[in-house]
# Entry
Amino acid sequence: MDGSSSSSQSQDEVPLMESHKFFHFEDGDETIDIKIPEVVDPSYGMYVWPCAPVLAQYVWFNRHSIRDRTVLEVGAGTSLPGVVASKCGAKVILSDDARLPKCLENCRKSCSANGLVGVEVVGITWGRFSADVISLPAVDVVLASDCFYDTKDFEDVLATFCYLLNKNKHAQCWVTYQERSSDRSIEHLLTKFDLQCTHIPLGMFKADEPHLAGSNLPGDHTIQFLLVTNKTAIT
# Structure
């Protein structure tokens, strides 16, 4: 018997180390504290990316407008923006790739770590319109943090946005993305799907600094915020 059996274990069988990252949001007398579980494994990627606290800050800045509204976070991963939305009184649905059960489980762990109950977690794969997608209730806001990561996924991401915004004419997508290359663009895809976007300067919601919510993020990364809507959106 050789030693290959332990080295050939699948990732599902190898225990992954976990840690927590903490965030503190405040505005005058109003504060919330968030604890996010992370998987300490770069190949797994279940940690808070620089875009997440920027989007969470926008959610916090607009907390009064989302109270009692339905908010869907797509590609949620560690779910920081969605957790903040739930803490602010929104009715939140968290989602990630239906083919990645560990990501969906991490969404549930983030809810548990923050004492949230009744938050639905569903599998949504970019560009695929499964029964889970079709059966979603009406949503008011779609949150997307760093979903424009791999260019091969851009069209599927925007196809999903298009479906959600066509189904919910009044809805908005709140999107943060990290600038990784000046050659990347979604402008032609926005045109293809009849969508429009507005760039919102980070300073307008107090996110133009390297350390947000008591964390070391977003650091020196360049983060952009987009508000994406259907061109025929009901205002």
